[in-house]
Write a structure and sequence with these properties.
This protein is an alpha+beta fold and 716 residues long. 23% of the residues lie in helices and 28% in strands.
Length: 716
Amino acid sequence: MARILWLALSALLTTALCDYTITLTPSSALLVTDGNTTLVNNTAVLAGGQNTTAEPLKNATEGLAYAFLTPTIAKITLNTSNAFHGARFSASESTRFYGVWEYPFNNRIDNANISFELKGVGNNVGVNWSNARAPFFLSSAGYGVYADTLKMGSYDFTTPGGAQFIFNSSSLVYYIILPKGDGGLKSVIEQYTELSARSEIPPTSGLGPTFWSDDFTQDFHGNVSNAQENIQDLVNHLYDNRIRATSIFADRPYGSGNRSWGNFDFDPAQYPDPASFIQNLTEVSGIDFQVWIANRAQYGTKLYNASIQNHWLFPDDHPVGGLGEALNLSIPAAYNYFDESLKYFPAVGVKGYKIDRGEEGEMPDYVQNEQMALFLDLAYDSMVGTWGKSRFYNFARSAVDRSRAKTHVWNGDSHANFTGLAYSVASGIRSGLISFGIWGSDTGGYTREGALTPSPEVWARWMWFSAFSPVYELMLGTNHTPWYPPYDNTSTLAVMKQTANLHADLLPYIQSYTNDVSKTGLPIIRALFLEAEKDEKTWDVNDSYFFGSEFLVAPIVNAGGSRSVYFPNGPSKSYLEYFNKTRVYSAGTTANISSPLTSMPVFVKQGAIIPRGDVYQGNAKWIQGWTPDLRLELYPSFDVPESKFTYYGGGAETEIVLTTNKTDRSATVDTGGLEFNGWGVKIVWFLKGAEEGRVMDMKVHGDGGSLKVTNIETLF
Ligand SMILES: *[C@@H]1O[C@H](CO)[C@@H](O)[C@H](O)[C@H]1NC(C)=O
Ligand SMILES: *[C@@H]1O[C@H](CO)[C@@H](O)[C@H](O)[C@H]1NC(C)=O
Ligand SMILES: *[C@@H]1O[C@H](CO)[C@@H](O)[C@H](O)[C@H]1NC(C)=O
Ligand SMILES: *[C@@H]1O[C@H](CO)[C@@H](O)[C@H](O)[C@H]1NC(C)=O
Ligand SMILES: *[C@@H]1O[C@H](CO)[C@@H](O)[C@H](O)[C@H]1NC(C)=O
Ligand SMILES: *[C@@H]1O[C@H](CO)[C@@H](O)[C@H](O)[C@H]1NC(C)=O
Ligand SMILES: *[C@@H]1O[C@H](CO)[C@@H](O)[C@H](O)[C@H]1NC(C)=O
Ligand SMILES: *[C@@H]1O[C@H](CO)[C@@H](O)[C@H](O)[C@H]1NC(C)=O
Ligand SMILES: *[C@@H]1O[C@H](CO)[C@@H](O)[C@H](O)[C@H]1NC(C)=O
Ligand SMILES: *[C@@H]1O[C@H](CO)[C@@H](O)[C@H](O)[C@H]1NC(C)=O
Ligand SMILES: *[C@@H]1O[C@H](CO)[C@@H](O)[C@H](O)[C@H]1NC(C)=O
Ligand SMILES: *[C@@H]1O[C@H](CO)[C@@H](O)[C@H](O)[C@H]1NC(C)=O
């Protein structure tokens, strides 16, 4: 009885607080209004026999339905006799539209002047094949639009203040999503991902440090004579240099047969004993192992022969022996064959796939999204049966939004120079805006031209960017390994060790945000405007971001070692330089910051709570009797009476609360009884003067866990 009454009351409250309405105007536009204010001008719904002939639907009573599904989500359904459907939106000319593609056209984080299909982008400036995508855009006017389809379509943002999409579909459902309360665009992303899909929490090993080679079957050193020994050589160097690692993956080639792919095996000449080798890697060395896969049938392989016999391949317009056509996975027998064949890999201990291609012309473009989603489903299925959820790491180059629950992403074949790095930073921000939140880039770039690329400078800058990316993955081998010529370079190796080990130590923080990604869809790499929506100066910033909400990260993406950094208004009154903890910058200002290759510009907010520490042993077998070590860095400020952080680790959440009191000059942390695997947590206060870096061991268990420091001066 009480419960029913409560439900009725809360329903009344929501309707009373939100009074968005949607109406159809005589000119067939859909307007979303709040009182007298038009929030969304959906100028036209479009229908036509071709994507080039789609026109505003004249008789809107035919095949159009619209209504609020929740107080903040309007659902629009289109179903007419036409083959193509879409919608057009307009707003003031200065309105920005974000989302749709991971690839940063013109190195921008918005879509100004872009018209392109919802498919893989291909070879382009900075990065080739940066291909996560979503039929979803965010508008700086304060709303989002999600077209719920896997059909092929195009988006057009070439009219200033305008956005348009048209899909090859005789029916189309799209949603206009408005902010919830004062949640701003973050709440739009949250509602959108609830409608489409959210990422699964990855295993810690997937977040890295992860090392790989484009070809472990070459570039042998010392006594190495095959790929298996080559990987062991890598493992040994990581161990000897005390460089933390959690995963290694083998790109193609590693199998037998034509171009190594299609026989679902390891080449016995390169991997004489794969099962025992992988078992040693995971159990003895503490490193998980992944392999490359793709939906392509290489001529003459088992996959090709079965497909030819059963007519599973898309029509072939590639030369025989080339890259191979894709299987049409809409055919259940083809899907099942592929699914069964892949089971070999988890059976020998492989814990995830690097999933390549799917957008290189091996199938008609108009099925790219549907087919890629099917392939990511089967790649997921083949792993989850053996390992269980969140216990393997699949990541793809090409993925559409509904596959978010099935795969994470990397940003494709970045170019190994500063252009590639700058575009990778922008693509990381864009990937976050479409909620592919567990993301990494090939550290140093993938496409190399000439010897000694990346240059040691580019490589070091990129390593720092990866330290502050959700995933740290680094390609070495094939003549660019820091400990072999032409590098043999102690400074590159030193930065690799510094950044990989820093990333490993940040895992408690990063993991806490992977929990957010999976629960709310909010990314870890956040465009500045997501945290500082009211500060217009943040709307176009393509080279710095919030990492979670406590760090402001400004990678150096140009030669020379300095850059300008804008400190956004809103999240904090001032920002403290993170590594040296001396310089403080006021919000709303811009500063020129220099940084040696052994550091990068990173700043923390007032009141920041940052969990760090050694919570995953991985390959660190050099530490005898390893036990987890978790510590909380606290950055109290009297400007912030209370701040909170939800720590996630070992499958559980703990809320940590930091309060300050200016009157008695104190700060108090309540750790919520936080512990890790039965171990207590260290508290590190960052305060002025003698108190600076005061470390307190707090082995509190269960109840309480509150600690107060008095007579303090805060750093900022
Ligand atoms: C809407 O406009 C009408 C007429 O201009 C005005 O009377 C009314 O107060 C306005 N309502 C709101 C909520 O602004
Ligand atoms: C909606 O956009 C159209 C096209 O730009 C414009 O003609 C119309 O006045 C706008 N309506 C509102 C209410 O802003
Ligand atoms: C619009 O479609 C409805 C439903 O099919 C029909 O009844 C009506 O006559 C049409 N109006 C016009 C102007 O064509
Ligand atoms: C579209 O309308 C047709 C005819 O009314 C109906 O058969 C079909 O199920 C509808 N499709 C969708 C996706 O609603
Ligand atoms: C868009 O293109 C127009 C004309 O080509 C150009 O003037 C304008 O600067 C471009 N805008 C952006 C944001 O690139
Ligand atoms: C990457 O794209 C560039 C064009 O931007 C092209 O010249 C190059 O061949 C591509 N590289 C690879 C490896 O595909
Ligand atoms: C129409 O589809 C073709 C591909 O078939 C595409 O190249 C083009 O961009 C699309 N145009 C529009 C306006 O959607
Ligand atoms: C639209 O999809 C159909 C299959 O549903 C396909 O035959 C046609 O070529 C596609 N049109 C375009 C322009 O891609
Ligand atoms: C696995 O490790 C054991 C014990 O260290 C060793 O004897 C064996 O040769 C290793 N196997 C492979 C395939 O590396
Ligand atoms: C990076 O490489 C690309 C492709 O080789 C080239 O077009 C671009 O100018 C290079 N950028 C820099 C900063 O060297
Ligand atoms: C931090 O301080 C150290 C030593 O004082 C210096 O070497 C380093 O360059 C500084 N780093 C930054 C980012 O200022
Ligand atoms: C802050 O400290 C003063 C002095 O001890 C105390 O009176 C006051 O209640 C404290 N404020 C809060 C919010 O705890």
